[in-house]
Amino acid sequence: MDLDLRKLRYFAAVAEHRHFGRAAEQLYIAQPVLSRQIRAFEQELGYTLFERTTRSVELTAAGAQLHKEAERILAAVAAAVQRVRDADRGVQRLVVAFSPGLHVSDAIKAFMSRHPDVETDVVPARWWEQDAPLRDGRAHVGYLRRPFDDSGLHTVPIGREPKVACVPAAHLLACRQELTRADLDGERMLDVPRRRTSSLEEKFELIASGHGIALVPLSVARSYSRPDLVHLPVTDAPQVETCLAVAADRREKPLRDFLRIATATLRGG
């Protein structure tokens, strides 16, 4: 069957909001119209995507999988449309993906000063699929933090950073100056694969409300500082490697120049 992108966008909005009314408002359509379109989409696919009650809308197993796929599909389509638009305008564009907490702005500014004719843009790389923007066409290069799937990618090491334990300010460990991994034995950890949160904001909200502790890179902790959380060095935790990554078969000159400039800039040299 042919996938109806309009219905896929409608589905993605409902999946994001878990509410037909709010999704309809976002889409600027009437709620009954949205409901009919989602039911038609389910009939076309042959699967139930939502469990509906009078109080809630939840994704089925098929719906949860389609939600993941829809995000990638819609992002790839949007990137393809942008490339077509750029080709029509004769525009060169370089898009940089970046992992949470990593700052690539200095590298972009250095590149723009030497290539003012190239338009630049950025796209966030979600922590559980950092390589996705490079594979679906949304980005040309990524400033990423390992681990990620680097198959088919050329990577350039940039540096390393420590991990810190993020704990509620009222936690017994919060008064310590530093920790070891042994100090965390018996604590509920919110790290992969035990519980995957959809965003870092969600993870920190769970930590602040007492649902557990997480080990996060120092740059992430600094970027999401809040008064109800404490970040403590974990002296024996392995450091995290940061790197630039690009598809191994990409050879465009602006991309090669960005790699060279960004490597020098991000390494501090």
UniProtKB/TrEMBL annotation:
Pfam families hit by this protein: HTH_1 (PF00126), LysR_substrate (PF03466)
The keyword Phosphoprotein belongs to this UniProt entry's keyword annotation: no
SUPFAM superfamilies associated with the record: Periplasmic binding protein-like II, Winged helix' DNA-binding domain
InterPro entries in the cross-refs: LysR_HTH_N, LysR_subst-bd, WH-like_DNA-bd_sf, WH_DNA-bd_sf
Keyword ATP-binding: no
Gene Ontology MF, one: DNA binding
Alphabetically ordered keywords of this record: DNA-binding, Transcription, Transcription regulation
Coiled-coil regions listed in the entry: none
A GO cellular component annotation in the UniProt record: protein-DNA complex
Chain ranges of the HTH lysR-type domain: 3-60
Superkingdom to which the source organism belongs: Bacteria
CDD domains named in the record: PBP2_LTTR_aromatics_like
Family to which the UniProt record says this protein belongs: Belongs to the LysR transcriptional regulatory family.
Record's protein name: LysR family transcriptional regulator
